[in-house]
Amino acid sequence: MTENVAEWKKNEVSEISSKIRESDVIGIVDIEGIPARQLQEMRANLRGKADLKVSRNTLLRIALNEAGVDEEFKKYIKDQAALLFSDINSFELNRIIEENKTRAPASAGDIAPSDIEVEEGPTQLQPGPVLGDLQKAGIPAEIDGGDVVIKENKVVKEEGEEIDALLADMLSKLGIEPIEVGLELKATQEDGVIFEPEALEIDEEEYRDKVVRAYQDTLKLSIEASYPTEETIGKLIQKAKTDSVKLGYEAEVLEPDILKDIISDAKKKAGSLASSLGSDFETNENE
Amino acid sequence: MEYVYAAMLLHSAEKDITEESVKNVLDSAGVEVDESRVKALISALDGVDIEEAIESAEIAPTTAPATET
Amino acid sequence: MEYVYAAMLLHSAEKDITEESVKNVLDSAGVEVDESRVKALISALDGVDIEEAIESAEIAPTTAPATET
Amino acid sequence: MEYVYAAMLLHSAEKDITEESVKNVLDSAGVEVDESRVKALISALDGVDIEEAIESAEIAPTTAPATET
Amino acid sequence: MEYVYAAMLLHSAEKDITEESVKNVLDSAGVEVDESRVKALISALDGVDIEEAIESAEIAPTTAPATET
Amino acid sequence: MEYVYAAMLLHSAEKDITEESVKNVLDSAGVEVDESRVKALISALDGVDIEEAIESAEIAPTTAPATET
Amino acid sequence: MEYVYAAMLLHSAEKDITEESVKNVLDSAGVEVDESRVKALISALDGVDIEEAIESAEIAPTTAPATET
């Protein structure tokens, strides 16, 4: 370090490194390509949950160093990086970042972040030269009853392909916003552990299933061990009753509760025998 | 089920269902009658409306659900 | 149904179902027996597997409510 | 049902189900025991594998559902 | 299940279900009674309407038609 | 159900389920532990193969009638 | 599943499910706690309504009356 190092840089580094020390969770995000206005919005959306700090990559690295963060973590600083400071755990932080992503129209040269599909159906567009442009852009459009309609679902750009100017224009005319705009989380650091975003994706459905399974298995154990709880006493009673009725029925124990079923069953059996004997016996008795 | 069928026969013939009559019917069929089961039957029938039980068979009939397959 | 009940009684007691035995059972129940119906019953039963007839009743028949699935 | 419950209690406690034991259990519960019902129970249970009887799903369901709604 | 059956027996005989009565019944069946399980049972039964619990069973799974009365 | 949950936790962590361990777990969760319920649990689980109990489909149906309340 | 069981225990005991409380419970069970799994659990449960999940379980899936035999 020379004496030429600007004072503001020193201040910036010490400000960042003290924020690093104060925060439970540090995130590194890529903000490349995010327009200033939208970055402002994101900052606002994160307020109370995380602070976003944009600075030069070199300064961020120095600050991480000074704060004593694991060397490993610094490698996630590249392109246009920014730091997130938060006290929310990495999983939730990741979720909040995902939830705050917005869609934007494509511009010429954008890369499709996922397959771009047009859907069959009417459009708001007036018939005219636009029809030819749509077709030229590979969109299956036609005139139907004075409206421009899309004939069928079609993937017009696959994930990873570049979007040309014409298609970008047509997509925006159709109101399709294929571009995802938002902070791109590169990694978080929490309690000395580094998480990459893939590790932070949580399948809530899966947890819900686990909750259900835990509940059911616990009920089963409680019933099977006949250990009564508030939740299972009713079921144990039912099981006792049901099994007793079954036994009574099977063994033809002539008790009122069971006899009813036995009679009903006897009637059914006799009835089905009667019906297999022909109409004579089906219509039966009393004459 | 023979005890129950004896009772149902008597019921359907509109005869009284008594220990005596049930025993007679079973006897005539060559069944070795277990008196205690006859008694139990009669005593259980005391709390059962045969007509109702029969009807429940006709209404909700067989079903035997799940079992299929 | 008393003729059918008589048959079921005999069947469930594992006795032979003959004109004779059916008549006996009905008699003992105080039923005025119609010989031609007894004959008709026996002849109708000829070739019927009672067990099967009963079981087919239990599985499929009537409503077979929505219980499944 | 108390007679059947007594039997089930003994069964699930892995005790022998006899006239004696059923009577004992009912007595201790303060039930005025009807000997013929006890006899009938024992005789009905004779030769029945309780575990199997309970499991044989075929039976119970038969009647049940319909009530559903 | 013997603890539950003891309770069911008492219920069906219209007797009070208490630690005392449950223990008595189990004792009489020759069961070596675990006091804590009796307590747990009684405490779980607290506030439970057995009749209602039984009926809810009758609607759904196995048993017999809700004919009760 | 917290007592049973404690047992399931220990089971799924492959730890022994003892009065001690169950109490510890409940304690740590801030539950005011009722010793007799712990004892009852341990005694109820005695001889129960948890894996098997969970798998035994037999139970599941019983659970059905959410009617409870 | 021990992490889920820890959460369920806390839920059933009406305690807050936090990183702290889950860790405590697991610790007390002798489980070597993986902090990131605790964090994942807490964050996932943030979006899961346990009560609702349980109720939906009781009505539908549990049943599995496929017991057939």
UniProtKB/TrEMBL annotation, chain A:
<keyword id="KW-0699">rRNA-binding</keyword>
<dbReference type="GO" id="GO:0070180">
    <property type="term" value="F:large ribosomal subunit rRNA binding"/>
</dbReference>
<comment type="function">
    <text>Forms part of the ribosomal stalk, playing a central role in the interaction of the ribosome with GTP-bound translation factors.</text>
</comment>
<dbReference type="GO" id="GO:0003735">
    <property type="term" value="F:structural constituent of ribosome"/>
</dbReference>
<dbReference type="Pfam" id="PF00466">
    <property type="entry name" value="Ribosomal_L10"/>
</dbReference>
<dbReference type="InterPro" id="IPR001790">
    <property type="entry name" value="Ribosomal_uL10"/>
</dbReference>
<dbReference type="InterPro" id="IPR040637">
    <property type="entry name" value="Ribosomal_uL10-like_insert"/>
</dbReference>
<feature type="domain" description="Large ribosomal subunit protein uL10-like insertion">
    <location>
        <begin position="106"/>
        <end position="176"/>
    </location>
</feature>
<dbReference type="InterPro" id="IPR043164">
    <property type="entry name" value="Ribosomal_uL10-like_insert_sf"/>
</dbReference>
<keyword id="KW-0687">Ribonucleoprotein</keyword>
<keyword id="KW-0689">Ribosomal protein</keyword>
<dbReference type="Pfam" id="PF17777">
    <property type="entry name" value="RL10P_insert"/>
</dbReference>
<keyword id="KW-0694">RNA-binding</keyword>
<dbReference type="InterPro" id="IPR043141">
    <property type="entry name" value="Ribosomal_uL10-like_sf"/>
</dbReference>
<dbReference type="InterPro" id="IPR022909">
    <property type="entry name" value="Ribosomal_uL10_arc"/>
</dbReference>
<protein>
    <recommendedName>
        <fullName>Large ribosomal subunit protein uL10</fullName>
    </recommendedName>
</protein>
<dbReference type="InterPro" id="IPR050323">
    <property type="entry name" value="Ribosomal_protein_uL10"/>
</dbReference>
<dbReference type="GO" id="GO:0022625">
    <property type="term" value="C:cytosolic large ribosomal subunit"/>
</dbReference>
<comment type="similarity">
    <text>Belongs to the universal ribosomal protein uL10 family.</text>
</comment>
<dbReference type="GO" id="GO:0000027">
    <property type="term" value="P:ribosomal large subunit assembly"/>
</dbReference>
<comment type="subunit">
    <text>Part of the 50S ribosomal subunit. Forms part of the ribosomal stalk which helps the ribosome interact with GTP-bound translation factors. Forms a heptameric L10(L12)2(L12)2(L12)2 complex, where L10 forms an elongated spine to which the L12 dimers bind in a sequential fashion.</text>
</comment>
<dbReference type="GO" id="GO:0002181">
    <property type="term" value="P:cytoplasmic translation"/>
</dbReference>
